[in-house]
Amino acid sequence: MNTQRRQILVAGSAALLAAPSFVRAQGLEKPKATLAVGGKNLLYYLPLTIAEQLGYFKAEGLDLTIVDFAGGAQALRALIGGSADVTSGAFEHTVNMQAKGQQLRAFVLQGRAPQIVLGINPKTMPNYKSPADLRGKKIGVTAPGSSTNIMVNFFLAKAGIKPGEVSFIGVGASQGAVAAMRSGEIDALSNLDPVITLLQRSGDLKIISDTRVVAEADKIFGGPMPAGCLYAQQSFIDKNPHTVQALTNAMVRADQWIQKAGPADIIKVVPEAYLLGDRAVYIEAFLAAKGALSPNGMIPDKGPETAFHALASIDPKIAAAKLDLPAVYTNEFVKRALAKYKA
Fold first, then answer.
1. Closest CA to 44 of 229, 217, 222, 172
2. Using 50, 70 and 90 to split pLDDT, how confident is the model at 96?
């Protein structure tokens, strides 16, 4: 067999493997899978909730168990520890973990901006004037080491404040965060919607940095900063490509559904417990966050570089690391999903 003919046959085989219909016909390597997430009620992870509630995972043949943790750091640990197959978490974890020798890869995007909001407590910091006033203060985050913590570190670094010069307190992503702020347990809060909108409406939080606005997030981080995504260990993706494709298909459908949905549609689908007792607040939060949600699941090519620079600015070890940034993400599964589910 000559070289040219061999190349044609190899290319043909690759095309068959890439085709969604072939993936479906082959069946799933792991139809029963476990996904870890930190703060499932957050709008940051709305596509995950929509895919679950509308039955998109089941439609792809998946029996998916979703385990919710207090923050993204715990969800990440579940993946590394082997109790979860996939994580719904912050994109920057893939970069951070590669620097620590763990090969993780993101394969479908939920948010094109972090949606993390940093605000001060008007009761304990009534005279706040600048980021320098946060030195020595107690700052609430969903969980130490989570993306909410990383965002604060990056914000503080620009003001010349080191992480050790403040106290970080894990308050979760729901009523615990609200209670901590209202009781004065914390002086500032880095969190997401609907918690942020609820506290802002009640006058218990004054926003000082808002990455729900894509343009502001790009300005803060110096480029596109991918946010919520699904990621897994590279070894899992290699062994279970059909399963990963099924997960991606469901998430892409959810991303597309959200872009066409109105507040009333969202309220009908989202579990009542996620509304924090106030539908109006959740609707306002959804409208504030909608622009930061991914319309199609595609991860921006410059995203890994932006995430690296953000992490490097607060961690000398990452700054000195030589990383293979293209290895932390892939859009191949999303491209196949988009070919199947055209918007």
1. 229
2. very high
